[in-house]
Each structure stands twice: as C-alpha cells, then as structure tokens.
Amino acid sequence: MAMLDDRKKKILQIIIEDYIATAEPVGSRTIARKYNLGISPATIRNEMSDLELLGFLEQPHTSSGRVPSAQAYRYYVDSMVKPGALSPNDMALIDSWYRERVHSIDDIFKSTARILSRMSKNVSMVLAKGDSSTSFSYMRFLPLNEQQSYFVCHY
Fold first, then answer.
1. Residues 27, 29, 30, 32, Cα dihedral to 10°
2. What is the pLDDT of residues 49-80, one digit of tens each?
3. How far apart are the C-alpha atoms of 79 and 9, rounded to whole Å?
4. How many CA atoms lie within 13 A of 53 on its CB side?
5. β-pairing, 138-143 with 149-154?
6. DSSP 8-state code for residue 77
7. What is the pTM of this model?
8. How many other C-beta atoms lie within 10 A of the C-beta of residue 91?
C-alpha cells in the first residue's frame, strides 16, 4: 500500500470523514473553508490530484469534488483509525453473552451482530463465507462520528 506524507493523510482523512457525513463529493474549496489547514485551495487541489493518481480518490464528474475509493477506505481502516478500548462493563457483557449463547459458528455470528447492535445502538450485520474453516483474524469497532460506528471483521 502506498505511503502518504502527513499532508496527504490529513486531506484524505478529511475527505473520507466529510464524505461519510454528507454523502456529497468533497472539493478543495470546501476543505479550505471548513478546515484550517493553512494551505490554499490550489495546493489542496494538487494534493487531491495526487491522491487520485494513487487510487485513493475518484471524481464522479469533471466539475465535482472527489469521493473516496475502496482503496481509501481500506487505508483509513488499516492506517488512520485507532481502535479504542472497551469498558469493563462492555467486556463483561460480551463475555457473558458468548458463555451463555454460543453453541455453533452460526451462534457466534448472530451473537456478534446482536452485541454490536446493542452496544452501538445501530443496525449491525455480519456476513460470513460458507466455508466452515474460516476463522477471525481480528474485529474492530470503529467510529464514523460521535453518533455512529461501524464494525470491521477480518478473516
């Protein structure tokens, strides 16, 4: 995966988070107005162009702003978001839930979706391959903003 300098990382993070919040393509002028980066819209445009060449951004229309690519989201999850610690109450809830309810791999997936939904107060869904030899590598619960989160499970 491409290594980005600090300025490109910051601009990419802003674009991803702004796009998640608004569902609108993000332009250089929007970034310059909303975030005090100390650089001009032209410099932001150049950085965005570089991020597009690297495959992190896409431009839906010639005159529109940019949107994050699948590669950008993967980079964001893997490199930019730091997982937080669970509270002792959350850990106890998870522990008791699995001790009482898990009897099969299907139970694990169903319980995981229920726990995430309950803890996040959001709808959650866990999809798994049909292969019974699949195992978890890691799970992350990541914030989108102060009110919303999403769950990433890696096999």
1. 120
2. 999 999 999 988 777 789 999 899 889 888 88
3. 10
4. 8
5. antiparallel
6. I
7. 0.59
8. 11
Instruction: For 23-34, give one letter per residue: b (16+ CB within 10 A) or e.
Output: eebbbbebbbee
Contact in structure between 127 and 117 (CB atoms under 8 Å): no
What is the distance between the alpha carbons of residues 18 and 154, in angstroms, rounded to a whole number? 25
Residue 66 to residue 98: CA distance in whole angstroms? 42
Tokens of 67: 């949107």
Strand partners, 143: 149
Rounded Cα distance, 121 and 51, in Å: 34
Residue with tokens 């410099």: 43
- Binned at pLDDT 50, 70 and 90, residue 41 comes out as very high
